[in-house]
Amino acid sequence: MWLTNKTNHRPQTFMVQILAISHQPSHTLLAAVPSLPHKPTRTAHASPSHRLPLLVLDGDLVQSNPIQSSAGAAVPPPLRSPAASPDPRLRFAPRTGFKMGHHSDDEYSVAGDKPEVEFMDFQNDNTLQDYQSDDGPVVVTAPFPFVNGKPKSVLVGETSADAICIENTSCEPVDLWSVRIFSSNPEDSYVLSMMRPPLNDSDEAAKKAFLGLTSVEDRTLQPGQTLTIWLSCMPKDIGLHTSIVHVDIGDEKIERVAFLLADDNVSMALSSDKPYSRRQGSQRKQFECNTFVPGSRPIRQHTQGFKYKLPQYAIPVEIRELIECKQRPDVLSEELSMINYAKFFSTLLVMEELNLEEEMRSYDMEHVSMRRRGNDYLSLEVPGLAEKRPSLVHGDYIIARHAGSDARPYQGYIHKVEADEIFLRFDEQFHHAHHDRNKYDVSFTYNRLNMRRQYRSVHDAELIGPDILFPSLSRYRSVKKVPFKPLNPNINTEQADAVGMILGCRGVTPYVIYGPPGTGKTMTLVEAILQLYKSNRRANVLICAASNSAADHVLEKLLSSSYPIRPSDIFRLNAPSRQYEDVNPDFIRFCFFEDMVFKCPPMRALMRYKIVISTYMSSSTLQAEGIRPGHFTHIFLDEAGQSSEPEAMVPLAALCGRDTVVVLAGDPMQLGPVVFCKQADQDGLGKSYLQRLLGEFEQYHSGDPNYVTKLLRNYRCHPAILELPSQLFYEGELIPCKGDEVPSVYDCIGLPNKSFPVLFVGIQGCDEREGNNPSWFNRIEVSKVVNIIRTLTRNGDVSEADIGVITPYRQQVNKIKKALETFEMPDLRVGSVEQFQGQEREVIIISTVRSTVKHNEFDRFFNLGFLSNYRRFNVAITRAKSLLIIVGNPHIITKDRHWDKLLRYCADNGSYQGCPLPPPEEEVRYSGYGDTRDQPAGDGWGYNQEELANHIHNQDPSDSSFRHDNGRSSTAHEAEWPEVKPDGDYHSYPDAGAEPQEETQQKQQHVEEGATTRQDGVQAGQWSANDVDDGAVQDAYVQKYTFPPGWGDVSSIPATGWE
């Protein structure tokens, strides 16, 4: 066979002998070249079966460029038999004579022991494309260099090519043994060639003429010579495409790694040309002035006064100084008891409040302008306001003064919030002196209303005695279960037992309904309330929930029951700050308002209601209006696991009488309290009252039916969906009551196992941020999620209302919503885990976002994000009724033991699709709750001070996760706080993506008693308390601190109310 090289000025023709023809689809020929002189091949690489050098030909044609000598003469390319495969020990094992980036010979390869690419964290490891410090006689360029720190983007179906230049910079010839693609992911996605691949718009003849090589064999590089080889890729699906190219030259083996990010039209439309730049927080301390010129309050803050006023509970200077010096108050080293209860929780609340102050300081602005808006308002543009960074609402206020001035500052109340602007009203003198060219320094504040409510609640709680706070100290009770005829025929045995026990309870020792996901906690509460309403006309019931949406849900269930409730007997108490338009029109008639502003009705009207529904914090207004302890015969706390103990005490300490029956319903294995201060979280503020009861008192822990009922029958989830959470969190006790058939409408997405409706779609994308928004998104996952939704809804068998999308980051929520709007699906529910607690959908799709190890470690270290939080994991995977789909990077997922179990659960049942799985034997470093072996030391993560500062000032409040799972009090005894972060700061942030007035109480509550109080906010992720190494803080404190005598003491205040 004759081969002619026509690519150079001097065409060359070679005669070759055909040795073999492969019958594989590629029609490979093995051709020997006996007539060409060639250098001897290395013994170690010679093939015993082929004494002649080989050229591997793929397809129909090979064109190659002879290397030009320094004199310009063409040198025929010497050929040899293919080299042996690289060392099989390559998976993270040292290789002699191997170079990757500027690593030495003893560094690691990214190649595996098979021809496959191991996971490469390109966003964390800059050496993967940093080859500038390579030394030696040969320089090899890297194909597809990063653009702005990210892989080059290419559309699916289009070819992208780049050159690999191999240059001999020495004065001696160098033997080039081979250049080969060792592996690529996806498989066969990259091609090597000696000629430049045709462009995407090239004609068919040019495309047919192009042919790739599997490798380039023996050649000699003369001094100063460069060989150019082309690496090309045409992606067939979205996601990261990687390849390892090995250059075997002289005595060296050099590796180059290629990355391409394949986009489709959806993901490409979501990319941004605005590179991320972190917002610079003000370095100026808060105004030292304690007085300011008052501003003009919004009208709704003047609408109601209360009979009893709420004390200020100012933070004592001594306590502030102690905590700011990171010294630990002595009371936190003591065991919680009746004697120290108020002081213990007051100290934790001080820590929390100081943390909130610190957070708000990061949003202060200097030398900013305001614009006059009409005759009444000045507007201020606040970057990040649309993402609730900072979170400001109607009725909040700012402090402003002329830039650089030490004059007395002015208070400006927020009257309106629009996108990134707030409309303010100051004192008339400020408005009169204002010019739009003026520059101001602005300080943001958070309103202390809800913190003051909690200070009062923990002090009042001491007055209600041990029956509530420490049931083990109270007399053992035996409850006689009351028989009843169910109003709801669907309640099961455990639910009926719980209702019967509630009807028979006397006294204040709490009764607990422990309800895992989908077991009907709310149904049980509704049945108990209706039975009380029906059979006991003396009963007055207060139901408190953790959020407005949860409270509205209880109201909806009560109104939809078969037993009618007179409208005059039921009242929904709303905070004045809640927008009138946000309330379901069907519920308005059960609310009290004037001029579309919600209010608390007068005392006489309140006394007539038989059923009152409120949030935990808003229940404080009942006491402020004059409702006395004992008025309510029954107090129900729904979703009690979501509130901290001081929050739970707001309704209990104020309204619980000697004979009040207290019922808590919740699940300590689902979302817990919102706590921003990490140290307060660990010391006990992150433990809910429900969790303390179930964990520390034998009558609850043992399941004594006189104190607790555990609901076990799950009616929501397909058995395959329920199996894993039941084993992980509920000792395998949950009983699936839903059928095990998978509806055929889900066949359209190609379930690999049609009887197993849990699908893991593995995809490697890219963590991204844009502009000054620190929230993360992954546009590749967005595209995959949208594609799944479109597939499910294409035939109309699955509606938008049947699908929910859960994702941890606000920006990912926004990107998915934007993409869905393009396809006219604006109403499909997309939100955080917190927004889905208590909800369910036929189909749940989870987008995990994270695709970088370092970012995930940072999230875990600071209790942020999504993947290292077992409670959020539990909630996320138990929302689906019929189909659960997880879209994420399996190499990141596997770093947490619970997500890894889910990944293996899918793989073991043949329900995994996508990029290659990480090997099952890979160690799971971050094992979640219950394992402290891998807990990082404070300085063991390689985060320098600059990285930490960047994180602190730029973390999206909507993306953070600060709920602790245990929060046991420490027994430490030293002056300094344990350094759990590299520089000892204790910054915390609000969480992921909840919309206004959606989920749980946010600590930044607003405005004055009787004015506006916000019950919206977001829940943050939690970190398992069992992950905390108690030894890190045990016996660590020697310096004692005693609170100033009588600080915050309320014993002199009459129990009947506040003076």
Give a quick set of tags describing it.
globular, 5 domains, 1059 residues, 25 helices, 46 strands
Task: Give me the Rg, rounded.
Answer: 34 Å
| Count of DSSP H/I helices | 25
Query: How many separate structural domains?
Result: 5
What proportion of the residues is helical, as a percent range? Answer: 10-25%
User: What general outline do the C-alpha atoms trace?
Assistant: globular
Indicate the CATH topology of the largest domain.
Rossmann fold
Number of DSSP strands? 46
Label the CATH architecture of the largest domain: 3-Layer(aba) Sandwich
* N- to C-terminal distance: 107 Å
Q: How does the helix and strand content classify structurally?
A: alpha/beta
Mean pLDDT across residues: 77
Which regions contain 5 or more consecutive residues with pLDDT less than 50? 6-115, 922-1059
Biggest sheet, in brief? 7 strands, mixed
Please write out the topology.
Elements: E1 2-5, E2 12-15, E3 17-21, E4 29-32, E5 54-57, E6 67-68, E7 74-75, E8 98-100, E9 138-140, E10 152-155, E11 160-168, E12 174-185, E13 190-193, H1 204-209, E14 215-216, E15 219-221, E16 226-233, E17 239-249, E18 252-263, H2 265-269, H3 317-324, H4 341-361, E19 365-368, E20 371-373, E21 377-381, E22 397-402, E23 410-418, E24 421-425, H5 428-433, E25 440-444, H6 449-461, H7 466-469, H8 493-504, E26 511-514, H9 521-535, E27 541-545, H10 548-559, E28 570-572, E29 593-594, E30 597-598, H11 603-608, E31 611-615, H12 620-625, E32 634-637, H13 645-655, E33 661-666, H14 678-685, H15 689-696, H16 698-701, E34 708-710, E35 713-714, H17 719-729, E36 735-736, E37 758-762, E38 768-770, E39 773-777, H18 779-793, E40 803-806, H19 810-822, E41 829-831, H20 833-836, E42 841-847, H21 853-861, H22 870-877, E43 880-888, H23 890-893, H24 897-908, E44 912-914, H25 945-954, E45 963-964, E46 1022-1023
Parallel strand pairs: 8-18, 10-18, 26-33, 26-34, 27-31, 27-32, 28-31, 32-33, 35-36, 37-43, 37-44, 40-41, 40-42, 42-43, 45-46
Antiparallel strand pairs: 1-2, 3-4, 4-5, 6-7, 9-11, 11-16, 12-14, 12-15, 12-17, 13-16, 17-18, 19-25, 20-21, 21-24, 22-23, 22-25, 23-24, 29-30, 38-39
Domain DNA2/NAM7 helicase-like C-terminal: 697-890
Catalytic activity: ATP + H2O = ADP + phosphate + H(+)
Domain Helicase MOV-10-like beta-barrel: 363-444
